[in-house]
Amino acid sequence: IYDFEDAVQTDEGVFVIWRGTYTPEAGNTFAKYIPFDITDPSDLDILTINNTGNSYTESISMDYSKVLNEVLVCWQAEIGEVYNIHCATVSLENFAVSNYFSIYEDQMHSQLNPFVKATEHSTYLVSWEDERTGNSSDLYIQEINSSGDVLLDEASGVVFCDASFNQFNSQLEAIDNQNEVYLTFWEDDRSSGKEFVTNIFVQKFCRI
Q1: pLDDT, mean over the chain
Q2: What is the rounded CA–CA span in Å between residue 26 and residue 140?
């Protein structure tokens, strides 16, 4: 049995990803690229993105880079008692899947729920929830290239919201590709008092 996780449209088709839910494929992640001119995708090759069995359900994010003609897939990987963010690239030229790499490796605190956004400059922005400062989650962002090399000054990621209580479910959207301006928006519990109150917050930032 499998669960659909995500899909992204490319110039010539759709890249679809799903996750195994029962042994022996529980926690493994698979994908298939379906060109627009294919009427029966059942005969197309299935790609194995992750066969370690550690991908957490409903935590997979990906985006298509038109510049690189590839897809970056990131997921919440179970590492002992915590979760870290692992990623891999898939070339749409030869369908080669890279070895996975970590956005930030922390054996004591969890990094959760990644969100991937391809830029116009052969890189990717990845945001996530991070529990490194305590029981609540803050939001971090990192820019990486296709090999997983981090490009921002902080190797462990740059915090863009560390208000009190939890910040979660962050997403990124480009609003000006030429000037590399993005919006990030998320759910935020900072207004909580005797009861939890969740609001939507938005922040604009420039990549340069």
Answers
A1: 92
A2: 29
